[in-house]
Each structure stands twice: as structure tokens, then as C-alpha cells.
Amino acid sequence: MFVKVYEYHIREESMEEYYRIQQKAGEIYKKYIDVETTYLQSKEDSSKWMEIAKYESEEDYQKALALINQEKEIQELFKAFEAILLSEPNMIRDEDFMDRKEISNS
């Protein structure tokens, strides 16, 4: 399993817009690829978010991303997303991972 992890800071007053953007972007992604996404908000800094998206494979992700990025609406959503990021730090960190093993203690 291929995993993308993003970290960014969202303006407090823009939370509803953030949820709207993520909902719409998720709908577009699901047209092209199966993805399971988890959104985590920091308990210590409520502007800080992590987004963890799981895909079947990196190859599937890359193929779908090429198609997704051709969607006009996804480009508009990304611009709207950039507009609600905190100016400092105004960046999106991302990193790629491979899901190797799940351990359940239940």
C-alpha cells in the first residue's frame, strides 16, 4: 500500500472552507482511484493538520494523479486551499510512505 502524508497549517477562521474543499477534492479523487483519507488536527496547535491518504499502489496513484490534475475543478480547489493556508508557514509538506504491516492488539 502506498501512503501520502501531508502537513500544513490552516487559518482558524477558514475551517468550514477547508472542510468544503476536502469534500469536493475527495469526490474528484474517487472518480479515478480508491483512496482512504484520514485528517488529523493537532491538539497543541489547532491550525496544524496532517492528511494521510492510502492508495493500493504508487503506480495506481501516479496514473490517477495525471488524470486528476487535468480536472479544472481540482486546480480551482487547490488555489482555494492555498488561500486558506497560514502565511507563516505558508507551505505544504508531503512525504511518501509504504504501509508494511498492521498490528492489532484487540
From TrEMBL:
Source superkingdom: Bacteria
InterPro entries tied to this protein: Dimeric_a/b-barrel
Name this polypeptide is given: ABM domain-containing protein
